[in-house]
Amino acid sequence: MTTELPVPIPRVEIHSTLRSAREREGRYRLVGSRCSSCQALWFPRRFVCPRCHSRELEPYQCSHRGTVVTFWPDTMGFPAIGYEEIEDRVVALVRLDDGVHVITEIADTPAGRLQNGDRVRMVLRRQKREDTGNWCYGYKFEKEAG
Ligand SMILES: [Zn+2]
Predict the structure, then answer these.
(1) Sheet order of strands, 41-42 included
(2) Does residue 97 carry a pLDDT above 90?
(3) Which of 12, 33, 107, 127 has the fewest beta carbons under 10 Å from its own?
(4) Please, which residues have CB less than 5 A from ligand 1, an ion?
(5) How far is the CA of 41 from the centre of ligand 1 (A)?
(6) CATH assignment of 63-146, among 1.10.1060, 2.40.50, 3.30.43, 1.10.60
(7) CA 23–ligand 1 middle distance (angstroms)
């Protein structure tokens, strides 16, 4: 008799619809936090300032324009849970015009047409499939024309 080990199922992130709903301000409008004590800007939002440990943070509307610092194709050998139906994802580190850094997906621009230093702007797109089957919408960035 042979005993087969169960095949491990890779789980990189567990999607929670409730958490998605709580984070919608950040996802739809890039709302992060500004520390009232040291003025540091944070995205995603924080409840405690990582720099000065103050709990006095207020919502902050991040800039919707920025510059690509670096980018990479999102290939781990298997699609992340919720992203199975989205092909050729390109993920980038974008420095917004107010200095906030955001890791984001690049929409409508294949990796071959993207360069470090490209100007990008925020757009609203489908991000991932929730465990309920609904699409979760949120920010991505696309290359600015010209
Ligand atoms: Zn602070």
Answers:
(1) 41-42, 31-35, 57-61
(2) yes
(3) 12
(4) 35, 37-38, 40, 49, 51-52, 54
(5) 8
(6) 2.40.50
(7) 21
Beta bridge partners of 31: 61
d(CA 141, CA 122): 4
146 vs 100: CA distance, rounded Å: 24
Going by pLDDT thresholds of 50, 70 and 90, the confidence category of residue 28 is very high
Average per-residue pLDDT for the chain: 87
Tens digit of each residue's pLDDT (9 = 90 or more) over 35-77: 999 999 999 999 999 999 999 999 999 999 999 999 988 766 6
C-alpha 55 to ligand 1 mean position (Å): 8
Neighbouring-strand partners of residue 125: 138
